[in-house]
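Weekly sync, protein design subgroup
Attendees: M.S., D.O., the rotation student, P.L. (late)

Item 1: inverse folding check
M.S. brought a backbone from last month's batch and wanted to see whether the design step gives back something sensible before we order anything. D.O. pointed out we never logged the input encoding, so this time it goes straight into the notes. Structure tokens as presented (139 positions):
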């Protein structure tokens, strides 16, 4: 089972596929613990070829994630009202596929940085590149 993991690095959100979502991530020598609250259900952003190029969430306007560097400083994140969109690949046009996927996991460190884990994505063809450097470690 593949899960998508999103994190902030070098002014953009990056993604990786992992088999299992761990209880803790390590990134840049910092632990990111599982946050004890549910963030939001997810929807897929798809390009014209129907490949997944990103993820969308309807977020609570007061959620601390919306005030994080991940959202405010990322060049591939768009906040439109309470619709939070992570574009993992550029696209001239896209559509939001409403799947209302459940089980999103939110991880955080002590500096208000976050990692998102999106479960059960193995039935979807991805249309974005996976990084090979500065990848997360799970435990």
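Designed sequence read out in the meeting:
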């Amino acid at each position: 089972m593949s899960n998508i993991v999103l994190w902030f690095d070098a002014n953009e959100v990056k993604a990786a596929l992992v088999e299992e979502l761990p209880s803790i991530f390590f990134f840049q020598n910092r632990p990111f613990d599982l946050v004890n609250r549910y963030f939001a259900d997810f929807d897929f952003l798809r390009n014209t070829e129907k490949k997944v190029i990103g993820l969308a969430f309807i977020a609570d306007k007061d959620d601390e994630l919306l005030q994080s560097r991940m959202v405010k400083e990322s060049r591939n994140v768009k906040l439109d009202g309470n619709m939070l969109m992570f574009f993992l690949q550029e696209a001239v046009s896209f559509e939001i596929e409403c799947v209302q996927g459940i089980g999103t996991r939110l991880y955080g460190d002590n500096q208000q940085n976050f990692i998102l884990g999106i479960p059960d994505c193995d039935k979807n063809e991805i249309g974005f590149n996976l990084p090979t450097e500065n990848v997360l470690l799970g435990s």
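Discussion: The two ends are 17 Å apart (CA to CA). Helices lie at 69-72.
Action: P.L. to compare against the previous round before Friday.
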